[in-house]
Amino acid sequence: MLVITTRGLREPQTIATIVTVAWTLGLLAVTLSGLDRETRSAISQVAIIVTALVSTVLCCLRARRSSGRRARAWLLLGAAGFTGLTGNVLAAFTGAENVSELALLLALVIGVAALRSFPDRELKRPQVLRMLLDGVVVGGSVLFVSALVIFPALTTSNGGWDLTRVITIALPVMDAVLATFAVLLIMRSTGTDRVPLALVGLSFTMYAVADLTYAVVDSSVGFQFGTVADLGWVVGYALGGIAACHPAGAGPAQDAPATDGTEREGSAVAGTVVTFCLFIAAAVVQIQESLGAISGLAVALWFIVIGAVALRQISLVVTNERLRRRLEIRVQERTQELADLTRTTQLTLTSVGEGIYGVDPDGIVTFVNPAGARTLGMRSESLVGRHAHDELHAAREDGTPFPYSGCYIHEAVTQGVTINSEEDFYRRADGALVPVEVTASPVIDDGHVTGAVVVFRDVTQRREIDRMKSEFLSVISHELRTPLTSIKGAIGLVAGGATGEVAPESARLLGIAGGSVDRLTRLINDILEVERLGSGADPLELVDVPLEQVVRAAVDQTEALATQSGIALVVGDVPGTVNADVDRIVQTLVNLLGNAVKFTGTGGRVDVSARPAGMFFEVAVRDTGRGIPADRLESIFGRFEQVDSSDAREKGGTGLGLAISRGIVSRHGGRIWAESEPGVGSTFLFTLRSADAGADTADKPPSSTRVG
Q1: C-beta of residue 404 within 8 angstroms of C-beta of residue 442
Q2: Which 3 state secondary structure label does DSSP give 104?
Q3: Which of 294, 471, 537, 612 is most buried, most CB within 10 Å of its CB?
Q4: Per mean pLDDT, which of 45-54, 88-97, 526-535 is the most reliable?
């Protein structure tokens, strides 16, 4: 067999198989012939030794032509064969049974290591455990029954546990473990590896069955070579040699993964069935040598027990395998769904034109979409792991940073509020400032805030348009004030009789003209006020003042209008001291109170109150009016915006009061927003920094709305 394979024939495994079959049939003929026992025994032992030697050499040659785990496996297989060969030689020529059996035990241990190394991919732990348990159940049953029926001398001996006795019991146990690993290897073999790995598994299985037969027969009636049982060792060694000759024995590239990206495995049910069948076959071989010493009832009982255990174990494996397959299908489906969802989310983040980034509860950036990275002139990965507020937000004009405690990100992750249309400046990688409009929303999982998502857009172009519009309005307003002053004066002179007595109808018309001039003048003044607030041209005069004093001043100015309209104006709890421009905040409150009275019916009520909110105080003006639709809660703070187009005709006003109020509050570093339930009433809220916190955010770029 060695000469044939080293000549490089095209199909060496075929030649090796033919030689093995002829060799086995020849030995079978010898064992069944009429030769005397000693002659048959000598021929059998020589045949075992020769077969073991050839198989060992072939395994070593295959190891030289392999690499990685496969080379190590063949080398261990050759070492196991050589160790077993040594034990056979010692048994045949020296009679040193203890040393021989110790060598055979070592060969079994090395064989287990070889079987463990053969798969090019790591075995799955549940599969290994399942096959081991099958081996323990069946092998343990065989060994237990054999010990009670065949090994009475070992189980009832009063002698100590000497080396001979330990080895005698250890050999069948190791054979059981070896056969279990061999069957596991058979079931693991797939694809091009199937033939050589299956041959290796069958090789060790035959060897284990022969060993078990030897142990049982030797302990009961004394084993002698020259019987059919010797074929187990010969065939076992020969199958290992055939596997080494197979072209696929070298295996795939070192530690190469499966070509389809998955790891296929054999059937767990088939593996269990094969395991039980092999051990039952081994038990039959063991018992057939001593049937005369065992009663028929004991034999029947033995097979009933083993058969029941086998059927029970197989049924459990079938059930578990079905459940596992179903679970795997569900897991795969769920994994695919999650992968599709993740891909869709990723595509959405990648495709959206607005900048989006996420932060954890500490304000650390967790992701940035490509549009956001482009706007900031940075790479997405360079922003991840940095503090969003410190990295992105522009500093004050004097270079000092705005405090994180007043940032919309901090409020989103600590208070769980959503900040809408916050205007800010972000710092690009090149140091340039980008005006942005921001929405910060908390991420809430099971009632706990786990971070926030911030959406921002570059509003440079919009700001330029607003600037041009503001300049236009400013010019027009200034140009209108001069002729309006002349018109107002001329109307006054005519109405006062400077040109003669005025008829009643003319006086009525002059009054209408004068009122229209007054309204137009107020409109122009409001426009100029908005422009001054937007440009910051009118500096704030900040002082520490009790908040209640400011509220009382605004209520005093509005109380007459409320009384005239039949509205109850109530001041609630107003604690604390704020750092503010008193006149500007009174102006803001007068605007809010005036609107509340204007849009609340007779008999209604307007409440003013305040409460602490961290470093701020939150002032609230609540009414019982008609309410505001949800889609108008933000737009009403724009210029010339009113809830309904008919309000200007029915209620009067220019639509600039809330825009002016927002500008004032923003200049103070606070925010203003509205909450409403149509038909129930509205609440306008704004924040002012407490006197204890100082004016850290005063004159900050305008901010806007949040939803709490």
Answers
A1: no
A2: helix
A3: 294
A4: 45-54
For the sheet with 568-571, list strands across it.
568-571, 605-613, 616-623, 681-689, 672-677
3-class DSSP assignment, residue 609: strand
Q: How far apart are CA 495 and CA 342, in angstroms?
A: 76
Q: Which residues contact 505 (CB under 8 A, 6 or more apart)?
A: none
Amino acid identity for residue 106 in this structure: L
Distances (CA, A) of 452 to 118, 416, 418: 51, 9, 9
Query: Residue type at 618?
Result: E
pLDDT at position 6 is: 42
Query: What is the model's pLDDT at position 123?
Result: 54
CA-to-CA distance for 130 and 136, rounded, in angstroms?
A: 10
Could you tell me the pLDDT band of residue 552, with boundaries at 50, 70 and 90?
Answer: very high
**In terms of pLDDT, which residue wins out, 525 or 558?**
558
Q: What are phi and psi of 82, to 5 degrees?
A: -65, -40
The angle subtended at Cα 386 by Cα 384 and Cα 387, nearest 5°, is: 130
Task: Show Cβ contacts of residue 81 under 8 Å, excluding neighbours closer than 6 positions.
Answer: 52, 55, 56, 59, 107, 237, 240
Supply 475's token pair: 């010019």
Six-digit token string for 337:
């769904």
What's the Cα-to-Cα distance from 650 to each of 406, 467, 605, 653, rounded to whole Å? 40, 32, 21, 9
Q: Provide CB contacts within 8 A for 131, sequence distance 6+.
A: 180, 181, 183, 184, 187, 271, 272, 275
- Encoding tokens for residue 676? 């409403």
User: How many angstroms separate the CA atoms of 149 and 287, rounded?
Assistant: 9
Q: One-letter amino acid identity for 123?
A: L
3-state secondary structure of 570: strand
Using DSSP, state whether 377 is helix, strand or coil: coil
The C-alpha atoms of residue 164 and residue 145 are separated, in whole angstroms, by 21
176, 139 in Cβ contact below 8 A?
A: yes
Burial status of residue 652 (CB atoms within 10 A of its CB: 0-12, 13-18, 19 or more): exposed
444: β partners: 449
Query: Is the separation of the CB atoms in 242 and 58 below 8 Å?
Result: no
Report d(CA 418, CA 414) in Å as an integer: 11
- Mean pLDDT value of segment 62-75: 83
CA atoms of 374 and 386, how far apart (whole Å): 17
pLDDT tens sequence across 293-350? 555 666 666 667 667 766 776 777 677 778 878 888 898 888 888 888 878 877 777 7
Q: Are 360 and 393 in contact (CB under 8 A)?
A: no
Cα angle 171-172-173, degrees, rounded to a multiple of 5: 90
CA atoms within 13 A on the CB side of 148: 9
**Residue 689: strand pairing partners:** 616
Min mean pLDDT across 148-152, 508-512, 637-641 is at: 148-152
